[in-house]
């Protein structure tokens, strides 16, 4: 190979790597989705200020589940936290320079977590105390926000001397979000409860955090199998979809559900999955089954199985991409909202989620660890085809994470 050819090949390799890195956090089904942290200074104190910190989830379908969010940052100078309402700092740090009145937290890089719903009333503010859970914008917009209030000392006492915190980190509960720098924006306007008085924050900072599944986990979190009523062939979850049984890094390996030593479902907030022993080793398995193909309609049954002994999935949701959602007639066993893609006006994606107090909690692995729903589509003879796996989805997301699908050549034949 000539020197020019080698240089060209190296340049193409670098460009490919750069392109991949820049797009790994991009989600084609929710291109504008993000979590925005708003930091409002609402009053000044003799040695600092009081700030209202609010976390807004602007993502359509990705939510923050148990054990909830934690928010960290690094102070620009030697600030301390005198008190927190609606949340708590995880460590006090070294407060030896203070005598008498001791701050709540003296760490250079503090971390704040949410309080539980059982917190005393005098420790609560609006939108706090949900155990760190934040819903997605589509699923439950009223609970897509979380707040706490800080009293900050050893800080600036006016707009010219106060300094913006740096290195914001958002864990939900693990990694996955990358937060940009704090930006000064137009001050937030507040309305009193009786809507008769308007006030304004003295300063407002915004921090935008975006999600990357690659950062959240080195392995996928779910897989999908495909089947049809008129075919004995099943396209299973690909082997090692989430990890491999021989070389898996799952805590304590995996569990055979027929073993007499099947563990009691955990009541602790353990984020590392403990899964049933399967060829795919995924905590969540989705099955898309073509149940009916008649003259005018076709029907699909979707089964979601929780194979994780460590976790209940509260307020689970699915996002499915398929070209026939324009002809969706009825949904059984779940709620539904169409998602129009940024690049098209047609409806080829949908969000599905459980019905409250019926199937909105996907229980831990075992007999009750599954949920089912069905979709009825009107058949458009100008579009419907049984060729090339058209009746099966192009993408499936569970709780915002993309699931591994079988290869196209393994799809069942549909008559």
CATH architecture of the largest domain: Sandwich
Shape: elongated
Strand coverage percent: 25-35%
Structural class: mainly beta
Tally of separate helices: 2
The strand count comes to: 27
Specify the helix fraction band: under 10%
Give the biggest beta sheet: 7 strands, antiparallel
Give the number of domains. 2
Structure characterization notes:
Residues 1-25 form the signal peptide. It is a lipid-anchor; GPI-anchor. Residues 222-412 form the COBRA C-terminal domain. It is a single chain. Helix content is 6%, strand content 35%. The chain is mainly beta. It folds into 2 domains: 35-215, Immunoglobulin-like; 218-410, Immunoglobulin-like, CATH 2.60.40.290. Strands 1, 2, 4, 7, 9, 10 and 13 form a 7-stranded antiparallel β-sheet that branches. Strands 14-17-18-25-21 form a 5-stranded mixed β-sheet, with no helix packed on it. A 5-stranded antiparallel β-sheet has the order 22-23-20-26-27, with no helix packed on it. A hairpin with a 2-residue loop joins strand 26 (395-398) and strand 27. It starts with a helix and ends in a 13-residue tail after the last strand.
Reconstruct the topology from this structure.
Layout: H1 3-23, E1 35-45, E2 48-57, E3 70-74, E4 80-85, E5 87-89, E6 111-114, E7 145-153, E8 166-171, E9 177-179, E10 183-185, E11 189-191, E12 198-200, E13 203-211, H2 213-216, E14 222-228, E15 254-255, E16 275-276, E17 284-293, E18 297-306, E19 313-314, E20 317-321, E21 328-332, E22 335-338, E23 349-353, E24 361-362, E25 370-378, E26 395-398, E27 401-402
Parallel strand pairs: 14-17, 15-16
Antiparallel strand pairs: 1-2, 1-13, 2-7, 3-6, 3-8, 4-7, 5-6, 9-13, 10-13, 11-12, 17-18, 18-25, 19-24, 20-23, 20-26, 21-25, 22-23, 26-27
């Amino acid at each position: 190979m000539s020197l020019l050819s080698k240089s060209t090949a190296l340049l193409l390799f670098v460009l490919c790597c750069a392109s991949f890195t820049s797009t790994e956090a991009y989600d084609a089904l929710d291109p504008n989705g993000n979590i925005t942290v708003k930091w409002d200074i609402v009053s000044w104190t003799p040695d600092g200020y009081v700030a209202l910190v609010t976390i807004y989830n602007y993502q359509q379908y990705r939510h923050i589940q148990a054990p909830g969010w934690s928010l960290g940052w690094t102070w620009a100078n030697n600030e301390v936290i005198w008190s927190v309402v609606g949340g708590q700092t995880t460590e006090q740090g070294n407060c030896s320079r203070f005598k008498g009145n001791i701050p709540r937290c003296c760490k250079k890089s503090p971390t704040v977590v949410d309080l539980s719903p059982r917190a005393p009333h005098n420790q609560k503010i609006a939108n706090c105390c949900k155990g760190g859970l934040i819903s997605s914008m589509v699923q439950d917009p009223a609970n897509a926000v979380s707040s706490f209030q800080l009293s900050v000392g050893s800080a600036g006492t006016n707009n010219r001397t106060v300094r913006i915190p740096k290195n914001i980190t958002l864990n939900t509960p693990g990694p996955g979000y990358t937060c940009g720098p704090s930006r000064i924006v137009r001050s937030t306007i507040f309305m009193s409860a009786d809507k008769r008085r308007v006030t304004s924050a003295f300063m407002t900072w915004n921090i935008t955090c975006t999600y990357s599944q690659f950062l959240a986990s080195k392995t996928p979190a779910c897989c999908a199998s495909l089947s049809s009523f008129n075919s004995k062939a099943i396209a299973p979850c690909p082997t090692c979809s989430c990890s491999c049984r021989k070389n898996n890094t799952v805590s304590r390996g995996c569990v055979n559900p027929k073993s007499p030593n099947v563990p009691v479902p955990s009541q602790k907030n353990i984020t590392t999955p403990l899964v049933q022993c399967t060829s795919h080793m995924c905590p969540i398995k989705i099955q898309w089954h073509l149940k009916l193909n008649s003259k005018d309609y076709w029907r699909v049954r979707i089964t979601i199985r929780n194979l994780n002994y460590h976790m209940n999935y509260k307020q689970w949701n699915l996002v499915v991409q398929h070209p026939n959602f324009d002809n969706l007639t009825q949904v059984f066993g779940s709620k539904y909202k169409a998602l129009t893609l940024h690049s098209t006006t047609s409806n080829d994606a949908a969000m599905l989620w459980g019905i409250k107090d019926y199937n909105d909690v996907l229980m831990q692995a075992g007999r009750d660890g599954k949920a089912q729903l069905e979709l009825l589509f009107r058949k458009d003879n100008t579009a419907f085809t049984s060729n090339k796996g058209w009746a099966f989805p192009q993408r499936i997301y569970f709780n915002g994470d993309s699931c591994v699908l079988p290869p196209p050549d393994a799809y069942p034949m549909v008559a």
